[in-house]
Amino acid sequence: MNAPTTPSSLERADKLQGMGCKRKRVEDVRFTQGKGNYVDDIKLPGMLHGDFHRSSHGHARIVKIDTSKAKALPGVLAVLTAEDLKGVNLAWMPTLAGDVQMVLADGKVLFQNQEIAFVVATDRYIAADAADLVEVEYEPLRVVVDPFKAMDAEAPILREDIKDKTEGAHGPRKHPNHIFTWAVGDRELTDAAFAKAEVATKDLLSYQRVHPCPLETCQCVVSFNKITGDLTIYGTFQAPHVIRTVVALIAGLPEQKIHVISPDIGGGFGNKVGAYPGYICSAVASIVTGLPVKWVEDRIENLSTTSFARDYHMTTEIAATKEGRVTALRVHILADHGAFDACADPSKWPAGFSNIVTGSYDFPVAHLAVDGVYTNKAPGGVAYRCSFRVTEVAYAIERAMDIMAQKLGLDPVDFRIKNFIRREQFPYQSALGWEYDSGDYHTAMQKAVEVTNYRALREEQKAKQEAFKRGETRELMGIGVSFFTEIVGAGPSKNCDILGIAMFDSAEIRIHPTGRIIARMGTKSQGQGHETTWAQIIATEIGIPADDIAVEEGNTDTAPYGLGTYGSRSTPVAGAAIAMASRKIKAKAQMIAAFMLEVHEDDLEWDVDRFRVKGNPESFKTMSQIAWAAYNKVPPGMEPGLEAVSYYDPPNMTYPFGAYICVIDIDVDTGVHKVRRFYALDDCGTRINPMIIEGQVHGGCTEGYAIAMGQEIVYDESGNVKGASLMDFFLPTAVETPHWETDYTVTPSPHHPIGAKGVGESPNVGSVPCFANAVNDAFKFLGSTHISMPHDAYRTWLAAEKLGLHGLNP
């Protein structure tokens, strides 16, 4: 414990700019001046460029590929097809989900825009022109894009390479297009609870296919040194060390000869976790030519071929008493995985952490079953601004709770409060197997209700509903409520790994003789502000100003092995590793200080940036003084230097939560909406940098708004992808984006070294059902139960049309 704080201690703490300080992002100095270093900024001598010829069909057999015209184009050095890759055993690559995926189409194509041939040329424009010259003769095959038809008896078999396999990576397969069935919970007790339920609801709640759509697309530069055998890969990788290991496994290269570097990344949101054909083909092309090869996808390629998100269809049932106590939850999910199972989930969790579907509520029993299927769509299924599949099931439980409240005639807030897990129940064992670490749901919800004046909003809504019935207005008012609990911090080695590698994370901290610090982590920021916040943790723990701490990530040659940044795991796992490494250094520093002050180390106490003698505060040594001594005046038998490495394997996940309230007005004649107010209260445990948290909430809510109110990747019956450009795929601008009102409570995680839980994904998890509940709330007094997302103007107008509202006289 620190000594009682004195004014001088406060001044020194302010100078540190440690945890709790609204420190400005140090990254922005270069970004705002256009000095960021992204993959496409990398130019190496003799660098070639690659581009793909892609399929025009959603499902077809390849009869013939003619590359002669492409090869004849001046400037083209090579055109690779699956036949070429077979010669080096790289025609197929393993996925993170235990499946295999074509690198280039082998015998058939399974989704539109699938990669067929890779052209290597002296510049990008020649490569693109040559890709257009590749000629492919197809034999069209029947297409299945509806996951509900994927396992029909007459459905076409998509994956002919595994059509006779009755066992998949996660158990028995019941159809050639079936991937897995995964179930958790007590089915017998759950069914019994439903059999005697006084009230029950059952609804199909579909979360449409969307895409992370980061500002920067996926790209790489690969350079193979034929003399040394070293392979250097610059790429947009959220998990550089994982990519290095994957490349070693796929290519059979010694891992120490593979150097993966992730420079600045322009957004990831899960899209840049996995390995894509562009990476493999660029590596092969560099090995073949002996020259660096750059591949940069365009926006249409990014939206139509790289990892999608969601496409979960959730039949959700709640059982309850007439008084409004939930008694059971039963959920079946049909998961559309596209042509290959390339989900980026921990290995043991084929449906991610979807068993957090019980949410913030005290369900006595529950059962969840998930079936994954193949369709003629692009593969993926990444955690788009959420922890593995948490956003999908948060939407399911929050919509289902609203539907049950409507059936019972209860206010959505009151129904939730009645069923919240109580503070004294933590740590809480959920019916589906998770141990929630801490929570104070009632306090958070009560604060949200009071700050938004929720009860008065309900009175206003009633008055507007009466005015609508009288024909005095054509606007409906909806009030959306969501209360989410997220599970983040993957993860504990007891239940989380990727390709058999435990999901720990790491930190290496070295204090130089002058008291400055270099810190390297196994994470990789894509805009989260790690260079700012990681230094703040170290500053608080070690007592050296954050401005004197340099943070490095993304280079596998220098950073300790880590599992990367996604699923809001950075602070819960890497943040803990940073704190633990800092404490190792601090423990050694205390011994050095005791030697310098000629006292026993137990006679010292910590005071912000120094060790001082207990009872004699004028006798002290600062960390800067100790750092200098660490290199020339250490106790006998102690190694010189002041540095530490920590690999942190968390004992549990962390469980951030939040209360969101939205007020929306809808014009029933146009379907156009206006978000009048959006209030987001987040509890992420200990708050490292309030300004960065606020920015994360703004960004996550903006993406949640996009998803709920317009985003969708749609396929027609022939497998043609629609909405694969920003002409059709909704990305909100400053014009459409609502004003975000942020708030917080603080409930630290009891097992995390600094009590932090993570926040980057939470606003997306909470905002989507909040917007959806607001739209549905506007229509429910007219008898509507559920309107599916996305709630764009046309579909909202259609909902009003189905309710007969356009026949009403204004």
Based on the model shown, name its key terms:
36 strands; 810 residues; globular; 28% helix; alpha+beta; 19 helices
Short description:
The protein has 810 residues and is an alpha+beta fold. 28% of the residues lie in helices and 25% in strands.
Report on this structure.
The chain is of the alpha+beta class and 810 residues long. 28% of the residues lie in helices and 25% in strands. The protein has 19 helices and 36 strands. The chain has a 7-stranded mixed β-sheet, sandwiched between helices. Strands 11-19-18-17-12 form a 5-stranded mixed β-sheet. Strands 22-32-33-36 form a 4-stranded mixed β-sheet, sandwiched between helices. A hairpin with a 2-residue loop joins strand 9 (167-168) and strand 10. Helix 10 (390-408) packs parallel to helix 18 (762-779) and helix 17 (690-709) crosses helix 18 (762-779). The longest helix is centred in the last third of the chain and has 28 residues, at 570-597. The protein is globular and about 85 Å long. The model has no long low-confidence stretch (mean pLDDT 96).
Question: What is the element layout, followed by pairings?
Answer:
Elements: H1 7-16, H2 28-31, E1 48-54, E2 60-66, H3 68-72, E3 76-80, H4 82-86, E4 92-94, E5 100-102, E6 108-109, E7 115-121, H5 124-133, E8 135-140, E9 167-168, E10 171-172, E11 178-185, H6 187-195, E12 199-210, E13 219-224, E14 231-235, H7 240-251, E15 258-261, H8 277-289, E16 293-296, H9 299-305, E17 309-320, E18 326-336, E19 365-373, H10 390-408, H11 412-419, E20 428-429, E21 435-436, H12 441-452, H13 454-469, E22 475-485, E23 497-498, E24 501-502, E25 505-511, E26 517-521, H14 530-542, E27 549-552, H15 570-597, E28 604-607, E29 610-613, E30 616-622, H16 623-629, E31 643-648, E32 657-667, E33 673-683, H17 690-709, E34 714-715, E35 721-722, E36 741-744, H18 762-779, H19 793-802
Parallel strand pairs: 1-16, 14-15, 18-19, 26-27, 33-36
Antiparallel strand pairs: 1-7, 2-6, 2-8, 3-7, 4-5, 9-10, 11-19, 12-17, 13-14, 13-16, 17-18, 20-21, 22-32, 23-24, 25-26, 25-31, 28-29, 29-30, 32-33, 34-35
Helix pairs in contact: 10-18, 14-15, 15-16, 17-18
